[in-house]
Amino acid sequence: MLIHKYRTMRSLKICYWGPTMSGKTFTITAVKVMKSLEDPKGVFDFVTVADQQTGRTVFFDQAVFGFGSKPETDEYLFKIHVFTTAGQRRLRETRKVVLQGIHGLVIVIDADLDNWEENIWSLRELKELKGEDILNKKIPFTIFVNKQDLPWGKKISQRHVQQLFDSAGVSDLFPNLEDHIFHGSCQQAKTDLQQILQNTPRDILLDKNGHFKREHRPSSFNPLMKSLESIVKNVIKKQFSAQ
Ligand SMILES: Nc1nc2c(ncn2[C@@H]2O[C@H](COP(=O)(O)OP(=O)(O)O)[C@@H](O)[C@H]2O)c(=O)[nH]1
Ligand SMILES: [Mg+2]
To answer: What is the rounded end-to-end Cα distance, in angstroms, of the chain?
Structure first.
């Protein structure tokens, strides 16, 4: 039925929103690396625009992925345009542009407790710039709480996430928060992948088409992949039910 309905590839826009240095660029880079290993044809494009000296995103990063392959073809049903915003406060205008026309949101939270206020500031700005749309259009969202490799006592726990959203005054926009939260660490995912690639022979890691076998994907990648996959599925479900 899906195939019948979507004969041509449909485009969806997903935005990664979060404070500067929370790990948005790292996250979509890690997702892109895993996609390139597992499903290289499904990586259509990948661009990050960073300041040469600081490495900070100056406009946005963009990745374009294929999603939902049509059976017995090389084609995909959906083209997913993934954007990250530039997190620095002064770049508000560029964030406004990136938010235009989004179908889904991945909210990246910096689990470093020292960045509590930065998280609040970023959530408040999201409400200012997009709050009405999020409420009225019920834009699907997931929350990725990054940097779980930080030691206990230094990071935001499950319980803190609701507190954070309450303090920022945005809980009304994001109902049933707990059902949408993924806790993970880009740093851990990178380290785990490097170890597997270094220590496991290629013929064990790759299938007959030269693709990385899913069973070898480090579990630390799951929150990164699932926070995107789950939002894409929810966006598709929502579009479907609207037709
Ligand atoms: N400890 C730790 N540091 C991270 C993690 N993810 C990102 N970082 C660091 O946070 C900084 C900012 O990352 P970046 O992806 O550029 O953040 P962005 O500004 O949100 O795009 C970099 O120095 C990363 O190495 C993580 O999972 N754990
Ligand atoms: Mg960035």
So the answer is: 13
